[in-house]
TrEMBL record:
One of its GO terms (molecular function) is xylan 1,4-beta-xylosidase activity. It holds the Pfam family Glyco_hydro_3_C. It comes from Paraflavisolibacter caeni. GO terms for biological process: arabinan catabolic process; xylan catabolic process. Residues 481-623 form the PA14 domain. This is Glycoside hydrolase family 3 C-terminal domain-containing protein. PANTHER family: BETA-D-XYLOSIDASE 5-RELATED, SUGAR HYDROLASE-RELATED. The keyword Hydrolase applies. Keywords: Hydrolase, Signal.
């Protein structure tokens, strides 16, 4: 600016010169001079010049940084460096199926449901929409002067491409299923949608392939688990293909290393994974980020490092570029590691080069005028087009598993129907995990009601998801200072100190949230606040009562000034705290709460007496109703990431039993005994052991976690307004006895590729309201060289009375391969066929479809020999036809 002022003074001082020029020339010259002087100032250093390559700019900027500043830029919450014009930057945002931890965004179905669509074209469209919404939210925050914060940045740690090898894993819902090829196809579409066109100057976002590698539970041991017996074949054919595909086919800009150890080395300190395979073999040249506090685990859990200094050096030397933590960065110790000779500053520069190139590639350090993505407006967020995408995908996820006597679809002239179950009117269940909050959610109950007159639908929750008892609330029996309920006090800090900014009297069970920018009370900030709730309760009986609590943030429950429970959660999880009381005795109840940094605040609390469930009242309510839609299954309150709350059959977010929870099984039994025709809508993020349900229910619809329009999609399928075409992306086993040990990472006996016994429902299976016939395939060649491609022409006939969509699947089996997979998916194609018509489906099979692990070379290779091609509409042999091909 000082240079601009100097130029202006010069012009004024030489006014006599300007008076001799044409006025228009004077005006243009003046403007040009101002522009050039300002431009020259803005381009003072090479790193500020957007015409240079990101690499050249990064190299220049590195030369101007101190060692301490370099270390700070390798942290996921990187502070600003004002002297060089570097802004604060956060690496951690989530976009699993929509922008997470933000309100009023479009919430699409959970990834495991999207995998059931077998529609990677629609997946691309969805994540293109997600990246638009993320940029729009980011742009709005920037315009408001809000700093780049966690969960609203241009780096999104999506997709999760781990193989869902075991249905007990609670985070399997975040993946695209058990098959490496399906996961690869879906993952590539996710990355391309998020990052924008490959030929654009700036990336729209930076996507991230996680969690690298050989990771899929258990949640309870992931910080200490050592996998030292992983079969090389399993590594290369099952656990690595999706990561390779995202690196080599989608140009993914980030890879996240996992928590556990592989062959004694933590994944974030494993040079074989991060250097030899990722960079040397696959040519990955971008960022490796750590899972949160994975570097800290080196010395706190894995015990492979003595302290933070050693852990920082070990992680960086192995190939980790950015460290994410819950608290306390090890990477801030990198300068000390240099002093101790554990790592060189030149090595740190190498990592920082990748960090800064990534930021320059986003345009984050350039003027918004140069970055097209900075113009995306808020009007695009949850617009009609995105809502339609959410509904379209939710419909495509619907997977019909059973339909006895073709009871579905319903006739719309149905006089009366009962909709019951714990998930029937459950909005958060539909949102899945790692989710945002939509503007509106269509529950399954609402969707069904939209199809029939209101008085034709009977609703009852019927039972809890998992608990065999119900709680009679005692909240109304509390009193303090002569008033019913709890007395609440609020502070605008996290320490419950200083001036109270608000008080309240709460007479209903606590259910408070800052979602949607709602204050806990008037005058209370949305962040950096704390609260206290006090009351007294006189026990009506000598009995055991339970406190039902849930909080995102710090929560503590005190009875008579003694703490009986406390935790600090980053999401709201229900907890049950039993407590014995004596008749006539008074109990002081106090709750202390504090908002957790960077997280939405939530607080839920009730207490009372538990009583056994009796289904006789429900059956009596349903008298005269013949058809019952039971909407049950699981939710992210039961399956998820490293959850501290456990129920029978669940442990730390994982499952120990894959059956439907007992209380729901008992409810379905009671309904069948009462003569009801039960349609079971199962909502879950994982495969369920549903053997009893196949007997007690006439139809089963697997609805996953359907997103904001999940209820509409379910109703559209039930009433025939949409013909289901979803296919299972995971094997549905009969029960837990069919599974090997959870911590055993060998693939033997797992998934359709290695399962020798019959599953309940196979991978790739799903019914339609029409029927299809797969004809005999014609091969372009029966004998090929190992570098040749072939194609198959497969006639697909719709032999039913409705138009429908079929997913044609092609599997390959290498003959005389004793320890190889029974069959493995190598391609698929979704085809729409009109009723009574036949479509000739041409499917291309590249030479890599015949690539398997070669033990002699230790690499993937296409070997000469005989191969079987299995093609059809599920992985079950009875649903497939076979042709043979010879590779010479």
């Amino acid at each position: 600016m000082s240079q601009t002022i100097t130029v202006v003074k010069y012009i004024v001082a030489h006014q006599h010169f300007w008076n001799g020029l044409n006025a228009e020339i004077m005006r243009m010259t003046f403007i040009l001079t101002l522009f050039l002087s300002t431009y020259c100032f803005a381009q003072k250093f090479p790193y500020q010049n957007p015409k240079l390559s990101s690499e050249a700019r990064a190299k220049d900027l590195i030369s101007r940084l101190t060692l301490q500043e370099k270390a700070s830029l390798m942290q996921d919450q990187s502070p600003a460096i004002p002297r060089l014009g570097i802004k604060k930057f956060n690496w951690w945002s989530e976009a699993l199926h929509g922008l997470a931890n933000n309100n009023d965004v479009t919430v699409f179905p959970e990834p495991i449901g999207m995998a059931a669509s077998f529609d990677d074209t629609l997946v691309y469209k969805i994540f293109n929409a997600v990246s638009d919404e993320t940029r729009a939210k980011y742009n709005e925050a920037k315009q408001k002067g809000q700093e780049n914060r966690r969960f609203l940045s241009l780096s999104v740690w999506t997709p999760n491409i781990n193989i869902f090898r075991d249905p007990r894993w609670g985070r399997g819902q975040e993946t695209y299923g058990e098959d490496p090829y399906l996961t690869s196809r879906m993952g590539v579409s996710v990355v391309k949608g998020l990052q924008g066109p490959a030929d654009a100057k700036y990336r729209k976002l930076l996507a991230c392939a996680k969690h690298y590698a050989v990771h899929s539970g258990p949640e309870w041991s992931r910080h200490e688990l050592n996998l030292n017996n992983v079969n090389p074949r399993d590594l290369w054919e099952t656990y690595l293909p999706a990561f390779k595909a995202l690196v080599t086919k989608a140009d993914v800009r980030q890879v996240m290393c996992a928590y556990q150890r592989l062959d004694d080395e933590p994944c974030c300190g494993n040079s074989r994974l991060l250097q030899t395979i990722l960079r040397d073999n696959w040519g990955f040249k971008y960022l490796v980020v750590s899972d949160c506090s994975a570097i800290t685990d080196f010395y706190t859990s894995h015990k492979v490092s003595s302290d933070a200094v050693h852990a920082a050096a070990k992680g960086a030397l192995a190939g980790t570029d950015v460290e994410c933590v819950w608290q306390g960065y090890a990477f801030e110790k990198l300068p000390e590691a240099v002093e101790r000779g554990l790592i060189s500053e030149q090595e740190i520069n190498k990592h920082l080069m990748r960090v800064l190139v990534s930021r320059f590639d986003l345009g984050e350090m350039d003027d918004d005028a140069l970055v097209p993505w900075s113009k995306i407006p808020m009007s695009i967020v949850n617009n009609e087009e995105h809502r339609k995408l959410a509904l379209d995908m939710s419909r495509e996820t619907m997977t019909l598993l059973q339909n006895k006597n073709n009871i579905l679809p319903f006739n719309k002239s149905t006089t009366e129907i009962a909709v019951i179950g714990p998930n029937a009117d459950n909005e958060p269940m539909l949102w899945g995990n790692y989710n945002g909050k939509p503007k509106r959610t269509i529950t399954i109950l609402s969707g069904i009601k939209s199809k029939l007159p209101a008085n034709n639908v009977v609703y009852d929750k019927a039972c809890d998801l998992v608990e065999n008892k119900v709680t009679q609330s005692y909240f109304s029996k509390t009193i303090i200072d002569g008033k019913k309920g709890f007395k609440a006090a609020y502070w605008n800090n996290r320490e419950l100190k200083g001036d109270v900014v608000a008080t309240d009297q709460i007479t209903n069970p606590l259910k408070l949230t800052t979602a949607g920018d709602h204050e806990f009370a008037s005058g209370v900030k949305l962040v950096d606040f704390s609260s206290k709730y006090e009351t007294e309760f006189e026990a009506p009986e000598t009995e055991e009562i339970v406190f039902k609590c849930g909080a995102t943030g710090y929560f503590e429950l005190l009875i008579n000034d003694a703490s009986i429970a406390s935790y600090n959660n980053w999401r709201t999880l229900p907890s049950r705290i039993p407590y014995k009381v004596e008749r006539g005795k008074k109990y002081k109840i106090e709750i202390r709460y504090a908002q957790l940094n960077n997280w939405q605040a939530n607080l839920e609390f009730d207490f009372g007496k538990e009583v056994d469930i009796d289904f006789s009242g429900l059956i009596n309510k349903l008298k005269g109703v013949e058809v019952v839609v039971f909407v049950g299954g699981l939710s992210t309150l039961l399956e998820g990431e490293e959850m501290p709350v456990s129920y029978p059959g669940f442990k730390g977010g994982d499952r120990t039993d894959i059956q439907l929870p007992e209380v729901q099984r008992n409810c379905l039994k009671a309904l069948k005994a009462a003569g009801k025709k039960v349609i079971f809508v199962n909502c879950s993020g994982s495969a369920m052991g549903l053997v009893p349900e196949t007997e007690n229910c006439v139809a089963i619809l697997q609805a996953w976690y359907g997103g904001e329009s999940g209820g509409q999609a379910v109703a559209d399928v039930l009433f025939g307004d949409y013909n289901p075409s979803g296919k299972l992306p995971v094997t549905f086993y009969k029960d837990t006895t069919q599974l090997p040990g959870f911590e055993d990472y060998t693939m033997k006996g797992r998934t359709y590729r290695y399962l020798s016994s019959d599953p309940l429902f196979p991978f790739g299976y799903g019914l339609s309201y029409t029927s299809f016939s797969i004809g005999n395939a014609q091969l372009s060649k029966a004998k090929i060289k190992n570098d040749e491609n072939i194609h198959l022409t497969i006639p697909v006939s719709n032999t039913g009375k409705r138009d429908g969509v079929e997913v044609v699947q092609v599997y390959v089996h290498k003959m005389n391969d004793n320890d190889g997979p029974l069959k493995t998916l190598r391609t698929f194609q979704k085809v729409k066929v009109a009723a009574g018509k036949t479509s000739q489906v041409v499917i291309h099979l590249p030479n890599t479809a015949f690539e398997f692990f070669d033990r002699a070379s230790g690499k993937m290779a296409v070997a000469p020999g005989e191969y079987e091609l299995w093609y059809g509409n599920s992985s079950n042999t009875k649903d497939l036809k076979m042709a043979k091909i010879t590779i010479q």
